[in-house]
Design a protein that fits this description.
The complex is a heterodimer of chains A (116) and B (113). Chain A is mainly β and 116 residues long. Chain A has no helices and 11 strands. In chain A, a hairpin with a 2-residue loop joins strand 5 and strand 6.
Chain lengths: 116, 113
């Protein structure tokens, strides 16, 4: 199993550009989420999904869109990049569902995004 | 709303000494509590979790955590620190019945040789 994969590893954008951060998992996990990590702020939840076709907003959703057309993929779209979106982005997945026992998250390696 | 507090930005401990990284939480219902570790330029890795049952939870790499309901705490501990334990540690909470996970701001652990 590859686990959770994220592409690209690094990205530099200019203000106003759009892009999609890719996330995929091969563990058949229902629950997937996107976080951003900023110094002194810890991890903040952007969007999450509890299954294919179902998404919801997290703590800091503005400026980001998500969709979940398959169980495996959960892309994050930046609509019009701003310098405030400079951050490290992590995708995570967990088994989720009704069984609360198996709910630790597996994290991808992260995407370091710089917006100029 | 659920929340997590890690009151120490950094903890320094000498190699071989016991270590404690503090975490307190707030949820309305039953808490599910987690500790994750992050090494430089890496994603987070799961260390241990408390779901129900024994208040002392054992996890990876010799770490353990004690759930204290009255003090709403879930402190991470290890009897003897290693230099290789130096990393960033995150506490997280999820309320039973909900899928959102809230992370603390992280505590940098520095183990001094």
């Amino acid at each position: 199993n590859a686990g959770v994969t994220q592409t690209p590893k690094f990205q530099v954008l200019k203000t106003g550009q759009s892009m999609t951060l890719q996330c995929a998992q091969d563990m058949n996990h229902e629950y997937m989420s996107w976080y951003r990590q900023d110094p002194g702020m810890g991890l903040r939840l952007i969007h999450y999904s509890v299954g294919a076709g179902i998404t919801d907003q997290g703590e800091v959703p503005n400026g980001y869109n998500v969709s979940r057309s398959t169980t495996e993929d959960f892309p994050l779209r930046l609509l019009s990049a701003a310098p405030s979106q400079t951050s490290v982005y992590f995708c995570a997945s967990s088994l989720g569902g009704a069984d609360d026992f198996y709910n630790e998250q597996f994290f991808g390696p992260g995407t370091r995004l710089t917006v100029l | 709303a659920q929340s997590v507090a890690q009151p120490e930005d950094q903890v320094n401990v000498a190699e071989g000494n016991p270590l404690t990284v503090k975490c307190t939480y707030s949820v309305s219902g039953n808490p599910y509590l987690f500790w994750y570790v992050q090494y430089p330029n890496r994603g987070l890795q799961f260390l241990l979790k408390y779901i129900t049952g024994d208040n002392l939870v054992k996890g990876s790499y010799g770490f353990e955590a004690e759930f204290n309901k009255s003090q709403t705490s879930f402190h991470l501990k290890k009897p003897s620190a290693l230099v290789s334990d130096s990393a960033l540690y995150f506490c997280a909470v999820r309320e039973g019945g909900y899928q959102k996970v809230t992370f603390g701001t992280g505590t940098k652990l520095q183990v001094i040789p």
